[in-house]
Amino acid sequence: MRLSQSGYVMSISLYAASIPVFQQMLNALSDVLTKAEAYATEKKIQPPALLQARLFPDMLPFTRQVQIAVDFAKGASARLAGVEIPQYDDTETTFAELQALLAKTLAFIGSITPEQVRSTARKVSKSSCVPAPKRKRV
């Protein structure tokens, strides 16, 4: 930490603020899948019933939400490292397939080094998670 005019300033690398966070999130999601599968087995619930469940009617099924979480983590990580984003088919329909997807994504994210992110961070990057507003046609 260093002292600035307005007080203390703490610096943190872009790598430290992103890659480990994505890894923790995907590992936690893997734990959720493990618990959901055990619950389905214990309660004799067909796995597709949980995997296609929605907490609210306008939500996407759980399987798709896992795929979106993976897409965000791998996409953001690849952009930060300046490497090509891996393309996955998003055809997972079982707990095992979702766990394999998470493992594959964690392996990819784990291959990204702090130096890759540091070198890319020097370049200006524009990226948004929010779609641009649509313009009205006149």
Oligomer: single chain
> How many domain regions?
1
Biggest β-sheet strands, sense, barrel: 2 strands, antiparallel
| Architecture per CATH nomenclature, i.e. the level-2 architecture | Up-down Bundle
CATH topology: Four Helix Bundle (Hemerythrin (Met), subunit A)
Assign a percent range to the helix content.
Answer: 40-55%
Explain what you see:
This is DUF1993 domain-containing protein. It holds the Pfam family DUF1993. This protein is mainly alpha-helical and 138 residues long. The protein has one domain: dinb family like domain (Four Helix Bundle (Hemerythrin (Met), subunit A), Up-down Bundle). It contains five helices and two strands. The chain has helices spanning 19-42, 47-51, 62-81, 95-110, 114-121, and strands spanning 2-4, 7-9. The protein has a two-stranded antiparallel ribbon. Helix 1 (19-42) runs antiparallel to helix 3 (62-81). The mean pLDDT is 90.
